[in-house]
Amino acid sequence: MRRFSKEENSWIFYDWANSAYSIIISTAVFPLYYKAAATEAGVSGANSTAYLGYTIAIATFVLAMLGPILGTIADYQGYKKRFFTFFFSLGVISTALLAFIPTEQWGLLLICYTLTAVGSAGANVFYDAFLVDVTTEERMNRVSSRGFGLGYIGSTIPFIISIAIIVLSQSGTIPVSTTLASKIAFIITAVWWGLFTIPLFRNVHQTYYIQREPSPVVNSFKRLWKTLKEIKQHKALFMFLLAYFFYIDGVGTIITMSTAYGTDLGISSTSLLIVLFATQVVAAPFAILYGRLSERFTGKKMLYVGIFIYIIVCIYSYFLDSTLDFWILAMLVATSQGGIQALSRSYFAKLIPKKNANEFFGFYNIFGKFASIMGPLLVAITAQVTGNSSSGVFSLVLLFIIGLVILSRVPEPDQA
């Protein structure tokens, strides 16, 4: 197996850059920061968790609707990187702005968080689509998995720095408040994300594209409509998207709401942050392992393994009542969250026409983002109705089972 090329490494490195956002803003520091601000404002734990779930749902709705349209336009020569740059800039700038919003304005914090989520998710649509430009079909599983693995490793560096500042501020070792320490973490995230995206800007270019033509927006809508009308010709592709819609919903919801869930269980902020750090460390080698095992057992079989583990996670979560239980749950998640995401991305990339990569990754995005709406809403509604966050997480088992059944009907990429 030859070494990774400059283009492959530059593409992979964006996972290193963006994963700092995923762990610090989406998963760890911001949810705890927001929960503390909401609690101080008199909002109950169940309601603040629900509001976070509703916000995540709203944050993804607009982008989910625009994904295929923007992707179709971005298939024209030279457009892919322009769209990537816009959403990347939105994400980095709004992440930095989180540090300048007063904690008493917890509603404004959620609005700014919405912008960070749209920026990150929007940039990922075009980043994922660049996979077809930087490597061959035979190497996609390995390159995609390597990206997630490197992302987990890279994210631990700004995470450790941020958590160290927060813990030292809590102990009084350094003369800053916990609030200011969290704001410093937001700035670190924005700087890290921006700095390590430079290799992608320099070395990754759109190789597969459609030649520009007059009225690109109008013609993009025509191509999009043509794809929808010819959906039967892409049956395997859209069957996979339907399966992905359900199982990735559960994956994303567990990732984004894990700290809020842990807080409701009474687990301390310090314990939660340590667990999340350990999860990142364990997830890195497992993401790479999934890629290597997929070359021996196929990507589809490894997706089965990941979904099955998540079903166990959902069932086990219902019985959580201690920090040890949360540790066990987190380690189970760590074994599969990177692998299932990486192989889903490469599996899909093998199914699509390369010159229409942005258009089809737009559909990949819309299925993933609508799933991101349904999952948090399901958890939020169930948590409010039952008054128990554990019931909300347990309800996600249904999504994994449905996704597993549909995936079993999807052929391998070379048979589609």
Explain how this protein is built.
With 416 residues, this protein is an all-alpha fold. The protein has one domain: Growth Hormone, Chain: A (Up-down Bundle). The protein has 17 helices and no strands. Helix 3 packs antiparallel against helix 11 and helix 7 runs antiparallel to helix 12. The longest helix has 32 residues. The radius of gyration is 20 Å and the shape is globular.
Summed up:
The chain has 416 residues and is mainly α.
Distance between the termini: 26 Å
Please state the structural category.
Answer: mainly alpha
Shape: globular
Order of helices and strands: HHHHHHHHHHHHHHHHH
**Approximate strand percentage:** under 5%
Write the CATH architecture name: Up-down Bundle
Major beta sheet summary: none
CATH topological fold name: Growth Hormone, Chain: A
- So what's the CATH class? Mainly Alpha
Low-confidence stretches: none
Helices, by number, come to 17
Mean pLDDT: 81
**Rg:** 20 Å
Q: How many DSSP E strands?
A: 0
